[in-house]
Structures are given as structure tokens and as C-alpha cells.
Amino acid sequence: MVTNKRLEIGGFSLMYDVVIIGGGPCGLATGLALQEKGIKYVIIEKEAIVNSIVNCPLDIRFYSTSDRLEIGNIPFLSQEVRPTRSELLKYYRLVTERQALNIKCFQRVDRISKDSDSFTVHTVDRTGTHFSYQARMIVIATGIFDHPKKIGIEGEKLSKVAHYYKEGHSYHGQNVTVVGGKNSAVEAAIDLYRNGAHVTLVHRGDNVYKGIKPSLLLDIRNFIEKGKIKFYANSSVKEINMTTICLETPEGLVTIPNDYAFSLIGYQPDIGMLQSIGIQIDSSTLVPAFNSETYETNVPNVYLAGVVTGGITNRVYIEDGRFHGLKIAEDMRRRLNA
């Protein structure tokens, strides 16, 4: 039978059936599924809710249609078929408020400890106050977008280098280099050009036309072919300093003027947290070990939900991960009622 063992008291250990780590769309969807089944849970989020979407470009319009981003069977109606960032943020806020989801924002997970029949998730908030949450089960729904891949070169830690792109206005007239060849890099390069930046796009592949959104393809092809965006194919960044970037190209080393750089080469899961509690990770794909039917990992009573299940394969998105919580909740209810 499902039990609620302890009331919440600030700073002391709090008892739940389930702790969900991560307040993105898939974490929220898991909370809704547990709530529907009467399972006592709490969601821990180190930033604001759906922080990965908060970090998206301000003017982005998502490629997915609004109905494929819905959670908990709660309708999402956007002005156009594909929603904007602001529309999607508003939708997830309203879901959180109207469904009274139990979420604690701006608490970072410090560590997870385990005893014979429960886990304790230790957190710290922005003021340095520590909390701990006990539960029989854990769901890790941390996604991947808080952990950008690094190039691993000298100068990458300079303040002018960013791993997220917001908007282009501030870069008008500046020499800006974008590193990467997927949607985020191409979208940033196009927006920077439209805002008056002098844009260089660097990609280790021979082109950036494969696998990107159709809505970007015509613009990026046109801008590259007409020389409006300088493109270095089959190239990589060798070194970054305050005024230049050194590129390794098929023609040899090339140094170009640079004021700002965006390294948008992808993201990866927080494998440190996963491995700290014994979850096995595939070394090449960073895909964790889990049961595809229940989403339970090789560690009993620890589950995964959302994009984190795909490692660095880019095969799991919100559209898929939003349904993971339904299977997790069903398996948890069976165990808690046993």
C-alpha cells in the first residue's frame, strides 16, 4: 500500500515514495503520472522548471508540433502549429501550477546515499541551506542539456566562449565564430548573420546540410554559397585567445580575427551522478543500463526518464521521453502496493 511517512520540515530529512531528480518536461511528466496514481513524490530541480528550454534561443520556434510536446494529457494550443519558446515555457508553467506539482526549484543535488531499503538525496539551495529527501525509489530525469560537450583546447574557458546561444543583437559588427554542424549551430549562425555579425562557421564534417531542419536548409545554403557566412568544412578549432581563433583546416592552420565564439557541438548526460550510485554506462554512447519496459536501471529501485536514456546518441527527445513516466509509475505502483 502507498504510504506517506513524513511531513516536510525545512532543513530536515523529508520522506517520500519517490524522488524525481530533474524538472524538465520529462521529469514533470513523470510527476504527473505518479500523482495520478496517488504516489507521494517530490521533484528536485537545480534551476528553474524546464531549464533546458529556458536556455534555448529567445526567438526559437520549435520544430515539433505543440501536440507532441504535451504532458499529462493536458492540451497545448499554440498560435501556430509549431510553438515558440515563450509559448512552451508558459505551457509548462501553467501545467505545474494547475496540477500543483510538488517541485523544489533551485536546489542542486549534492550527493545520493543509500541504506538497506531507501535512498537519501542531499541537496543545497542558493543560500547554502542543505536539505535531504528520503525515498524508496528514485527517478533520474536530468536530461543532457546542462552538460555541454567541450572541445578540450586552450582558451575554451575564456569568458568570450559560450556553449548556449540566446540572441544575436549584442554581436552586431563583431567577429563571431560558431563551432558545430547541427541545428543549434546552424540556427545560431543564421541568427547572428541577420543581426549584423561577421560570422564564421566551423564544422568537422564536409557540409552542414544533412539532418538539419528543413526551415534552416535554404538559408544556410544560400548564406554559405554567397559568402555571407564563411564556412570552414572538415575543420576544427586548435586554439582560442582573446582576439583570434586558430583553425586546423585541410589547407593547414588558419588564424582568423575573433571577438566571440559559440561552441555548439552537442551535450551529454551527467554520468558522474549516474555512476556514483552504481548505474552502468556504455563507454562509447554514454547510454545507461536500463530495462526498456520499466525504465529501471541495473540499480534496483532507480529509474531513468527522458533524454538521459539516450546518452549522446540523439535518439531520445521530449516527444518520446514524456511517455516514460507512465511506464515508471505503473511499475512503481505495483511494487508499492505489493
UniProtKB/TrEMBL annotation:
What cofactors does the UniProt entry give for this protein? FAD
Q: Name one GO molecular function term.
A: oxidoreductase activity
Q: Which Gene3D superfamilies match?
A: FAD/NAD(P)-binding domain (3.50.50.60)
Sorted alphabetically, the keyword list is: Flavoprotein, Oxidoreductase
Pfam families on file: Pyr_redox_3
Under PANTHER family, the record lists: THIOREDOXIN REDUCTASE 1-RELATED-RELATED
Please give the name of this protein. Answer: YpdA family putative bacillithiol disulfide reductase
Provide the species name: Cytobacillus depressus
- Native organism taxonomy: Bacteria, Bacillati, Bacillota, Bacilli, Bacillales
Q: Its gene? A: ypdA
